[in-house]
Amino acid sequence: MESRKESLLKFLESIEEKEVISKERRAESMSSLPDNNIPPINPQIMREMTVRLERTSKDLAGMVSWLEREMCEMSSHTAKFVDIHAKAVDQASDNTDKSVKAMYSLLSKANSMQKDMTKVEMMSSHLKSINKYLERLDTTLATIKPNADIT
Predict the structure, then answer these.
(1) Is the N end or the C end of the chain the one with fewer CB atoms within 10 Å?
(2) What is the pTM of this model?
(3) Average pLDDT, integer, range 135-142
């Protein structure tokens, strides 16, 4: 933060130096002119200019101070938002990992269930064939019993 103040002060000093140099150049160019072209300096105007410049200086200092506070606040908010974003990304990543693990677990259970179902389907077909054989045996026995009563 100190470096910002220092750079701002250096910037303002460079502006002041440029103004001093331009004033000196103007003064040099004015000094080459004859004395009758230079208007007399009005003390009232000088006092008024001094007051205005002081007021402007205070206003500028206040604005720079306000700007510094606002920039610090913005930086603070930005840091908080970056932290929140990082936490959200971490949480989303964790949730995605959990979801993928749950999906693999579900797929594993589905494959296991499918294997069990093939065994159940084989047993079902065996039971159907046994049932057909039992029905044939019943019909055969039903046809043999009436004939057995005759003998």
Answers:
(1) C
(2) 0.44
(3) 89
